[in-house]
Amino acid sequence: EAGASVLLLRACLVLLASPIYLLSFLGVWEPFCRKVFFPFILDKICVVHDKKSKKHKQELFRNLPDFRGPSGDLRLLEIGTGSGSNFQFYPPGCKVTCTDINPNFQESLSRNMKKNQHLHYERFLVAAGEDLRQVPSGSVDAVVCTLVLCSVTSVSSTLREVLRVLRPGGAFYFLEHVAAEHSSWKYFWQQVCYPTWKLVFAGCCLTRELWKNLEEAKFSELKIQHISVALPWMPIEPHIVGYGVK
After folding, report:
1. What keywords sit in the KW lines (predicted)?
2. Considering the domain 1-245 in this protein, what is its CATH number?
3. Distance between CA atoms of residues 239 and 246, nearest Å
4. Degrees (nearest 5) of the Cα angle 155, 34, 55?
């Protein structure tokens, strides 16, 4: 019975990760994870993920210039900028507003800003995807979100905010890991890893079916492609990539 195997293997993982569970219980893990562990580990994972997803991102962001506003500028807001690994794909002169709920990526972020001086960096906001109240409604041409919807508290609230800040005709670009096919081994392992993974990786959920949230959001046009981005020993191979137009 799959359910019993999942529970048994989950328990084994909890034992293996028991020091982290203990630190979490004592209230020490969360701040340490946010300040030190997560920025460090994400930096390392991003290097591998960026290599594997580079051609998908080049393809994804190729039509960004088509969404320039009437003034000829492209005003772009990135949710969950992290270390800024998407900057290299944005067109020259693009005006970027960075947001992240975690302000502890400064070092790698400023490194990527220096590397990508073809962009104008407008401002950095410490904000959650669900609450972009510092950004006026209809004020941006494009919103970008990669590997972020897995860990927001509410996907639907985040997408509502995306649609609010976009001007009519603006576009939302995404690349996210998602739940595997339910009958697959990949999905079995996603279920096994789920609780421990979520604790270790700052709230990252392995089994979200994000294409459903995107289909329910009110985009006038939506392009979604299911792809594979294989990372060694990681249960996050199935991805979706695409964009939606307001």
Report:
1. Membrane, Transmembrane, Transmembrane helix
2. 3.40.50.150
3. 22
4. 60
